[in-house]
Specification:
The structure is a single chain. The chain has 458 residues and is of the alpha/beta class. It folds into two domains: 34-338, TIM Barrel; 375-447, no CATH class. The chain has helices at residues 3-25, 48-58, 71-76, 93-96, 99-109, 134-153, 186-201, 220-223, 243-257, 285-299, 384-396, 416-430, and strands at residues 33-38, 63-66, 83-88, 119-124, 161-163, 165-167, 171-173, 181-182, 205-208, 231-233, 238-240, 265-270, 314-317, 375-378, 444-447. The strands form four sheets. Strands 5-4-3-2-1-13-12-9-6 form a nine-stranded parallel sheet. The radius of gyration is 23 Å and the shape is globular. It is found in: Cell membrane. InterPro entries: GH (IPR017853), Glyco_hydro_17 (IPR000490), Glyco_hydro_17_plant (IPR044965), X8 (IPR012946). Residues 1-32 form the signal peptide. Its EC number is 3.2.1.39.
Length: 458
């Protein structure tokens, strides 16, 4: 069969399969993933294009949450495959209740960037119920409904979901976790209609649980996932070994009280600062690394929580960078995993071991020495569709692509360049390591630097 025809046929099959896979990711608790909150309240941050390239090539992070709809940032993440969540500021909420405004906002802020930028979620406001602004609060659900209607009109409602994140201040009671309930008044008049909207649109409920803001010197081990005696819930008989599970289960209990316990919960923000004021206990780089690394392991373990067993949780760590212009105490400016020059404040396993392990880097052709190990990787700037065709071609030949399937050792980062790197190298290694076996219509090049990382072996 002609190779181009073969590519086209496989691409068609892959598109149909992608719809099935997309549907599966919408089921509650199916897949955990680690994302990052990308804040910009600073005057020393790298350019968005540098940030996007850094995340794609040097980390395993494949989801980003923004606090606005900055067009430069949205453009920077085009063709990376990284999932992007954007936020509409609270002061825009009353305007969004008007469909004409929602349509115009969508036309200006979303449609120019999709599908090149993988925008998956729009958040209407941030912790709106905690603002005590009645206009914002009672406009929230109508604004979400209006924005969803605008997305339907633009045929984007299946690609982009609408939600809003909440602080734990929405709870009037959280202890014990099984007695969690929403604040009276808001529960019936705001939260119940909001949950009805999320159920109808298959969207998640977003919360910002921060054990950092709930711990004391006596509960530091409990907050950091360290061994401890736990906290016992006499109603259910469950013993809680960490504060995050207790916070999540309190939210779950409140949702269950309103008969909405099947809706997926997403952790929109959580983190731990690496520096604080001298009076603060447990605020240092070691504690921050401990919290975030234990967090990553826990939410992706599949253990779930006592009231939500066998679940994983989509989780966004706060934050990508230390932000030097944030107001408040010292800790507010030191939640970042990275300094503005993109060096790690501490290491929690999101960095790939070497620059070469990022996969989409541009390997330079070289004159290989006798017996020297070689690998085939995509060139920088290679067309995404061409790289996808490479994946389809190699895996369609029956070669072993299990490592880049969901759950495989090389599935993360879940991007086209990363998966193409693995597939192209599989073909190259199996075909005799001839230079022409790494051509792939001039999208591949040979390197002598091992791109393996973590459990992903090339």
């Amino acid at each position: 069969m002609d190779k181009n025809l073969y590519y086209a046929l496989l691409a068609s099959i892959f598109r149909d399969l992608s719809l099935v896979l997309l549907a599966s990711t919408l089921l509650p608790g199916v897949e955990g993933a680690i994302g990052i909150n990308y804040g910009t309240v600073a005057n020393n941050l790298p350019q968005p294009a540098q940030v996007a390239q850094f995340l794609l090539e040097s980390t395993i992070i494949n989801r980003v949450k923004l606090f606005d709809a900055n067009p430069e940032i949205l453009k920077a993440f085009a063709h990376t495959g990284i999932e992007v969540t954007i936020t509409i500021p609270n002061d825009q909420i009353p305007n969004l209740t008007k469909l004409s405004f929602a349509q115009q906002w969508l036309k200006e802020n979303i449609q120019p960037f999709t599908p090149s930028t993988n925008i998956v979620r729009i958040l209407v406001g941030n912790e709106v119920l905690s603002t005590a602004n009645k206009l914002f609060i009672y406009s929230l659900v109508p604004a979400m409904q209006s924005l969803h209607t605008a997305l339907v009109g633009a045929s984007l409602d299946r690609r982009i979901k609408v939600s809003t994140p909440h602080s734990l201040g929405i709870l009037s009671n959280s202890s014990p976790p099984s007695a969690g309930k929403f604040r009276q008044g808001y529960d019936v008049h705001v939260i119940k209609p909001l949950l009805s909207f999320l159920r109808a649109t298959n969207s998640p409920f977003l919360v910002n649980p921060y054990p950092f803001f709930g711990f004391s010197a006596d509960t530091l081990d409990y907050a950091l996932f360290r061994p401890n005696i736990g906290v016992f819930d006499e109603i259910t008989g469950h013993n809680y070994s960490n504060m995050l599970d207790a916070q999540l289960d309190a939210v779950f209990s409140a949702m269950k009280l309103l008969d909405f316990d099947e809706i997926e919960i997403v952790i929109a923000e959580t983190g731990w600062p690496s520096k604080g004021d001298s009076s603060q206990v447990g605020v240092d780089a070691e504690s921050a690394a401990e919290y975030n690394s234990n967090l990553m392991r826990h939410v992706n373990s599949g253990d779930g929580t006592p009231l939500m067993p066998n679940r994983t949780f989509e989780t966004y760590i706060f934050a990508l960078f230390n932000e030097n212009l944030k107001p408040g105490p010292t800790c507010e400016r030191n939640f970042g995993l990275f300094e503005p020059d993109m060096t790690p404040v501490y290491n929690i396993g999101v960095l790939r071991p070497t620059a070469s392990s990022s996969n989409p880097v541009n390997p330079r052709p070289f004159a290989p020495e006798e017996g020297l190990t070689k690998w085939c990787l995509p060139r920088t700037g290679a067309d995404m569709e061409a790289l996808q065709r490479n994946i389809d071609y190699v895996c369609g030949l029956g070669m072993d692509c299990g490592a880049i399937k969901e759950g495989g050792e090389c599935f993360l980062p879940n991007t086209v360049p990363a998966h193409a790197a693995y597939a192209m190298n599989v073909y190259y290694q199996a075909s005799g390591k001839n230079d022409y076996d790494c051509d792939f219509e001039e999208t591949g090049a040979i390197t002598n630097v091992d791109p393996s990382y973590g459990m992903c072996k090339y």
